[in-house]
Amino acid sequence: MDLSLLFVGTGGSVPSARRGLPAAFVRRGGDRLLFDCGEGTQRQLVRSIGLVDVDCVFITHFHADHWLGLPGMLRSFALRERRAPLSVYGPRGLRELMRAVRFIYGRLPYELSIVELSPAESVPREGYAVTAIPVRHRRGAAFGYALVEDTRPGHLDPELAQQLGVSPGPDFGRLQRGESVSGVRPEQVMGPARAGRKLVISGDTAPCEALEVAAHEADLLVHEATFAEEERERARQTEHSTARQAGELARRAQVRMLALTHISTRYAGPELREQARAVFAHTEAPRDFDAVELPLPERGPPLFVRWPGRQPREASAPPAPAAEARSGTAARSGTAARSGTAARSAAAARSGVEGAAPR
Ligand SMILES: [Zn+2]
Ligand SMILES: [Zn+2]
Question: What is the pLDDT of the chain when averaged over all its residues?
Fold first, then answer.
């Protein structure tokens, strides 16, 4: 069963040229889940995988950067005559919010369920569950989410089963489903149950113990890193985390991979990744449309996949003037050269880091 996460928007608070507002798209088999739906999420999806018919949307909290794209997306689904039901989950207050924006999406040709979750409440799904984790943001009315797969049966030893008189075929299936076959019990021929995969998304939060517990040995932790370590006090005041704090939490939780999101426009990304890597090596700083594939643990570690649609900035750019190269803006000047106008070059320079992040 495939499990993957696409970073639809990796920015925080305000979008930049490089980063859209928070949204993460999770695909598990045929299930399609969206976590947060910032303004512009529809367009981000169209630019990457297309505007897929998601089954569920999980909203972490009601700061505008996390949900403003939802009413428009509901409307778009209606315009193309969607019929499949859609569920939206979030903290208490979700109903009131959806009532307030109802006039935007209007009457829908599909069933829309709006479900307010209590802290620690789980949404059971086929083969897994999504649990709301109360995090430290917005006076407690904010969630992270943990997607946890059901435990899998242990590995069946075919040789041992045959020695005990069970023939390969349907009887193996019965053993794997927990039934005894001609006096042979499943536990005689099967190894211990195996844990399913776990994927945890922090939403916005200061470093949070409940999240750390939920993320214990997760295959992937997507954690916000709004600030660099130099802004630690600001992070504390605004109930956000620094990249290093995200790394420390990932290390304590012993996750297999940490991905940093909710990146403030003042950062390019790699500098935050390095701050987190100083304490937790398996850290990535995805850009929009990068993805993580999560194979079953016995098939290998999580795989970070760069979006193939992105051209390396340096590849087709003419050589940068020496002065600019020395000032460390080679990538920016390359962008400007391709755009071909001095005005855009100036705009790119003004926009600061978003215009210039070399990988
Ligand atoms: Zn936010
Ligand atoms: Zn927030």
Answer: 88
Considering every ligand atom, which ligand is closest to the CA of 138? 2
Whether 247 and 283 have beta carbons less than 8 Å apart is answered as yes
Ordered alpha helix ranges (H), 49-166? 70-79, 94-100, 102-105, 158-163
182 and 75 share a domain?
no
Tokens of 130: 């999504």
Which are the contacts of 164, defined by CB distance < 8 A and separation ≥ 6?
A: 184, 188, 189
Name the band, by pLDDT with cuts 50, 70 and 90, for residue 140.
confident
Residues 182 and 211 grouped into a single domain = no
Which one from 36, 53, 65, 171 is the annotated catalytic residue?
A: 65
Per-residue pLDDT band for 323 (boundaries 50, 70, 90) equals very low
- What average pLDDT does the segment 302-311 reach? 90
Number of domains in the chain: 3
- Residue pLDDT, tens place only, 224-243: 999 999 999 999 999 999 99
Ligand sitting nearest the alpha carbon of 36: 1
Report residue 234 CA to chain centroid gap.
24
Q: How far apart (Å, rounded) are the C-alpha atoms in residues 275 and 271?
A: 6
Indicate whether 213 pLDDT > 50: yes
Q: How far apart are CA 54 and CA 45, in angstroms?
A: 11
Scan for tokens 């797969």, then name that residue.
149
Residue 162 has pLDDT above 90, yes or no: yes
Could you list which residues have their CB under 5 Å from ion ligand 2? 63, 204
Predicted structure pTM score: 0.83
CA distance to 15, 63, 283, per residue, from 22 (Å): 9, 11, 19
For ligand 2, the distance from its centroid to the CA atom of residue 165, given in whole angstroms, is: 60
**d(CA 142, ligand 2 centre) in Å:** 8
Assess whether 173 and 232 both reside in one domain: no
Is 219 annotated as catalytic?
no
265: closest CA among 7, 13, 8, 6? 13
Residue 238 Cα to ligand 2 midpoint, Å, equals 9
Q: Looking at the structure, do residues 174 and 229 belong to the same domain, yes or no?
A: no
Distance 194 CA to ligand 2 centre (A): 36
